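Hey,

Quick one before I head out. I ran the complex with iron/sulfur cluster overnight. Inputs first:
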Amino acid sequence: MQDKLNFNHCESIYWVFTQLCNDKCDHCYNSSGPQGARISEEECIQIIENLPDQVDRLILSGGEPLADKKLLYVILDRLQEKFQGKTQIMLQTNGDLLTGEILDILIEKGVTRFDIASIDRYHKHSGSRLIELAELFDSRGVDGTEHQPLIEKDNYLVQNFRLSWGYWGASEDLWLGGNWARGRSMEKNIWLRNPKHNFCNILSGGIGFLTGAEGIPQEISIQLWRINPCCPGTYKAMGDARKEKVAQVLERVAQSPVFQKINAGDPLGMGESIGISREYAEQRTEELQNICLWCDEFFKQFFEVATLESRFVEPGQIDVIA
Ligand code: SF4
Ligand code: SF4
């Protein structure tokens, strides 16, 4: 279990440093695409300076990291300077743009794990490059025997990380658990309507973002610069990684019973400390059909993340998300 007070050590950080992408999938939760949002090199360097001093693994994702290749290379160089090879650097890519020449550069710059996250029916190429990619990795001695996402801590708590690659994708009942009620998935109206499905309590949700949980690493996500307890992202970010030390942000929110409930994977209980009952949360989740939409409503209506204080709401004045 992670030492709760020492957030200058994080087990895992998932960083979407770009929303630029060569693809434009309907299910994309962060609306990445050819016109996707980007941040500058200076902002990325600032974010790296603000990362904890010790990070066991850092997953670089997007968007498509290779669509923003120049920035990716700068980030990789800075990460090596900061962590001196003590952090496992993982790249999550759709694999469409990967060539032998690029793979050589990525390995040289310290990437030790490659995850091809597009082998599913949602992506345009639907895994058609898989054999080609397997040959490419094989030609560079990148091991492909563990193709599922590396979740076990043993995989990244060792140093001298071995080179490996894997592949997986979104499915109806795994990973995305359907589709998050976010981004283009929301625009295209293909988000998962299932009030009983608790995204927060599984990998990529908020569970364990402060302490880790059974079989789940202590992991936060940074979407561009927004520090979130989960990949879907809360209505307002916990902090701005360009301006604040990530460790300080985590120390701050760790004091809050609201975020402690998220850490427990229990967003239905996150209002209890400020008088919002679990019954009310269940009722709204049922009406909204999705637990992350309840979470959005909670942070919009009842709780200010910046001050960690509840908002006073006049009885009968609750402005629910339509
Ligand atoms: S799901 Fe992946 S490949 Fe598709 S648009 Fe989003 S970032 Fe790009
Ligand atoms: S309920 Fe909130 S904290 Fe939990 S996964 Fe959804 S958006 Fe993230």
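The first helix runs from residue 41 to 50.

Talk tomorrow,
K.
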